[in-house]
Design goal:
This protein is of the alpha/beta class. It contains five helices and nine strands; from the N terminus they run βββββαβααβββαα. The strands form two sheets. Strands 4, 5, 6, 7, 8 and 9 form a six-stranded mixed β-sheet that branches. Strands 1-2-3 form a three-stranded antiparallel β-sheet, with no helix packed on it. β7 (about 95-100) and β8 form a beta hairpin. α1 crosses α4.
Length: about 190
């Protein structure tokens, strides 16, 4: 037995109504290709390849959604790409960085940003030389995945525990009322 109520489907089940609600949206992490700061166009495939591998590694975690570098290409070179990632891609976090050096020895620097409050959550840098591309992609992807998944979960927990002054005031009123009701019940039971 079901009926429509205020554009929501309400299902009667054992005498109790339950509203079908849309699932809660997971936080979304936008992964940008590395900025190529080497001055060598032929290194461009490493910049996109590393971050594609990072995105693939991160997508194995179900606590957040990953927006791959290919989906971020249209906004990657914009001056306000963080704001655009929020507006156009629904991103909550952004992972970005650069590759510097030359084809034989280079440094990869990465940053994780919380786009909701514009804070830098994590900064990582490592120097590489003599790696073949595939092993380099794997080393970076695993290092990043191990480091940032806990950061995002920690930020999510901090946000859940953060209460505004109005929420705290409302909770205080509720606690006082609950206390008075319990005292009143005790007085009624005693008489």
């Amino acid at each position: 037995n079901s009926l429509r109520n205020e554009n929501r489907l309400v299902i009667e089940k054992n005498g109790h109504s339950q509203a079908n609600r849309p699932p809660v949206r997971s936080d979304r992490l936008c992964v940008f290709a590395l900025d190529n700061c080497t001055g060598q166009a032929e290194v461009g495939y490493i910049c996109s390849g590393i971050m594609s591998e990072v995105a693939a590694s991160l997508s194995r975690f179900h606590s957040f959604e990953v927006i791959a570098p290919a989906a971020c290409t249209a906004i990657a070179d914009r001056p306000n790409r963080h704001a655009d990632a929020v507006r156009e891609l629904g991103a909550d976090y952004a992972l970005e960085g650069q590759l510097e050096g030359n084809s034989s020895s280079f440094t990869i620097s990465l940053r994780l940003h919380n786009l909701k409050d514009a804070t830098l959550l994590w900064n990582w840098s490592s120097r590489y030389g003599g790696h073949d591309s595939l092993s380099l992609f794997n080393v970076v992807a695993h290092s990043v995945a191990e480091s940032i998944t806990g950061r995002i979960d920690h930020e999510r927990l901090k946000a859940a525990n953060r209460a505004s002054p109005s929420e705290l005031a409302a909770f205080d009123i509720w606690l006082r009322a609950q206390h008075l009701l319990l005292r009143w019940d005790e007085e009624v039971d005693a008489s």
